[in-house]
Amino acid sequence: MRKSNPIRMCISCRTRESRQELIRLQKDHSNLIRYSGTGRSFYLCTRCLEGQHISKIIAGREKLDVKSVEELIKELIDNVKN
Ligand SMILES: [Zn+2]
User: Fold this and answer.
1) What is the mean pLDDT of the chain?
2) Angle, vertex CA 79, rays to CA 17 and CA 39, nearest 5
């Protein structure tokens, strides 16, 4: 049997990719956090992660605190590069 390869969509550019290629995020009240395992989540591709206005886009869409989004995005970019 073939293993399924779930396809998910980046919330910013709407590119569809396999789940492993995307970063899974979640809202925690007005903060952005990495997916904790439960609750509503969404995906972001690595290209959008490094996009210039991504923090504002996500904060606006999801009604989040821009500062918290910026901090998490920075951390995620560092993780992706290392
Ligand atoms: Zn994207």
Assistant:
1) 93
2) 60
Q: Tell how far the Cα of 10 is from the centroid of ligand 1, in angstroms.
A: 5
Span from the CA of 24 to the centroid of ligand 1 (angstroms):
12
What pLDDT score was predicted for residue 54? Answer: 95
Question: How far is it, in rounded angstroms, from Cα 6 to Cα 19?
Answer: 6
The answer to whether residues 13 and 45 touch, using CB atoms and an 8 Å cutoff, is: yes
Is the dihedral angle over the CA atoms 67, 29, 16, 78 positive or is it negative?
Answer: positive
Query: What are the pLDDT digits (tens) for 16-34?
Result: 999 999 999 999 999 999 9
User: How many whole angstroms from 2 Cα to the centroid of ligand 1?
Assistant: 27
Ligand 1 centroid, distance to 43 Cα (angstroms) = 8
